[in-house]
């Protein structure tokens, strides 16, 4: 004879026992879950992109997007895509804290906490390194309108 599992349930009120019940269960070869129906765990999914970090990073792309069409033919700042996160994090913290010389970046970074800067740096590090557009400024063209002396 195999051992069985028994459980008793006793419902009481302040004045005494209202009802009793006993449940019997057959032995189980390995407990799988606390619910009566076993559900296989879901397969691990690929991590979701950090959309908030992407939104923050878009502000950086105004000046640092070397591969964008608006940068074609213009001298741009260093591209951030594909750079190591630790390198970016160190630079961002130093500019924010005033220990690295910069013009506009200290003002732009003042509102960011370290965890937010880390997320931005991680976002850029996860992006494929972009191809730089022409980094030399365009040569000004001569005016096509004839100039008349005054």
Task: Give me a quick take on this structure.
With 150 residues, this protein is of the alpha+beta class. The protein has four helices and two strands; from the N terminus they run E-E-H-H-H-H. The longest helix is centred in the middle third of the chain and has 14 residues, at 51-64.
Give Rg in angstroms: 33 Å
* CATH topology label of the domain at 51-126: Cytochrome Bc1 Complex, Chain D, domain 2
In round numbers, the mean pLDDT is: 73
SSE order, as H and E? Answer: EEHHHH
**Largest beta-sheet characterization:** 2 strands, antiparallel
Strand order of the largest sheet: 1-2
Enumerate how many helices there are, as a single number: 4
CATH class of the domain at 51-126: Mainly Alpha
* Unreliably modeled segments: 132-141
- The CATH architecture assignment of the domain at 51-126 turns out to be Orthogonal Bundle
Overall SS class: alpha+beta
Distance between the termini: 118 Å
Share of helical residues: 25-40%
What is the percentage of strand-forming residues?
Answer: 5-15%
Shape designation: elongated
Keywords: Heme, Iron, Metal-binding, Signal
Domain Cytochrome c: 29-128
Protein name: Cytochrome c domain-containing protein
InterPro entries: Cyt_c-like_dom, Cyt_c-like_dom_sf
């Amino acid at each position: 004879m195999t051992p069985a599992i028994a459980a008793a349930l006793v419902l009481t009120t302040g004045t005494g026992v209202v009802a009793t019940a006993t449940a019997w269960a057959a032995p189980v070869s390995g407990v799988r879950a606390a619910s009566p129906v076993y559900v296989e765990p879901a397969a691990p999914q690929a991590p979701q992109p950090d959309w908030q970090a992407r939104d923050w990073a878009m502000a950086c792309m105004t000046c640092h997007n070397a591969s964008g069409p608006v940068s074609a033919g213009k001298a741009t700042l260093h591209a951030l895509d594909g750079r190591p996160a630790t390198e970016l994090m160190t630079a961002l913290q130093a500019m924010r804290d005033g220990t690295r010389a910069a013009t506009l970046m200290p003002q732009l970074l003042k509102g960011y906490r370290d965890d937010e800067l880390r997320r931005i740096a991680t976002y850029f590090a996860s992006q494929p390194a972009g191809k730089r557009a022409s980094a030399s400024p365009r040569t000004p063209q001569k005016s096509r309108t004839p100039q008349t002396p005054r």
